């Protein structure tokens, strides 16, 4: 299940259940559909199962977006996967505080 809430110039996407490729593609669509300059918060705290392929799809979406995105609710394995796949750790926020800049990791990492 995916829940989306728009608050001013921010979008909160909350997911629960299984984070599969379909869920990752839903988040990708939300990123693509959000107006330029929107702060986006992805809350995965209620997800009980993560599929690795979906996490890789999600990482690609985070790296490619120009939006400021914060992600919370990751388990250690998913956190490490996203870091290895080039997502900046500042985007992988345990809370929902805004983070500056896009989610692309610097090339020096």
Describe the structure.
By secondary structure, this protein is α/β, with parallel strands linked by helices. It has one domain (2-91): Transcription Regulator spoIIAA, CATH 3.30.750.24. The chain is built from three helices and four strands; from the N terminus they run ββαβαβα. The chain has a four-stranded mixed sheet with strand order 1-2-3-4, with helices on one face. Helix 1 (21-33) packs parallel to helix 2. The radius of gyration is 12 Å and the shape is globular.
CATH superfamily: STAS domain
What is the total number of structural domains? 1
Proper CATH architecture: 2-Layer Sandwich
Morphology: globular
User: Helix content range of the residues, please?
Assistant: 25-40%
Taking pLDDT < 50 over at least 5 consecutive residues as the criterion, the unreliable ranges are: 95-100, 104-109
Order of strands side by side in the largest beta sheet?
1-2-3-4
Give me the count of strands.
Answer: 4
For the report, how would you describe the main beta sheet?
4 strands, mixed
Q: Please identify the top-level CATH class.
A: Alpha Beta
Order of helices and strands: EEHEHEH
Structural class: alpha/beta
Mean pLDDT: 82
Residues in β-strands, percent: 25-35%
Total count of helical runs of at least 4 residues: 3
- Ends: how far apart? 34 Å
Q: What's the Cα radius of gyration?
A: 12 Å
What is CATH's topology name?
Transcription Regulator spoIIAA
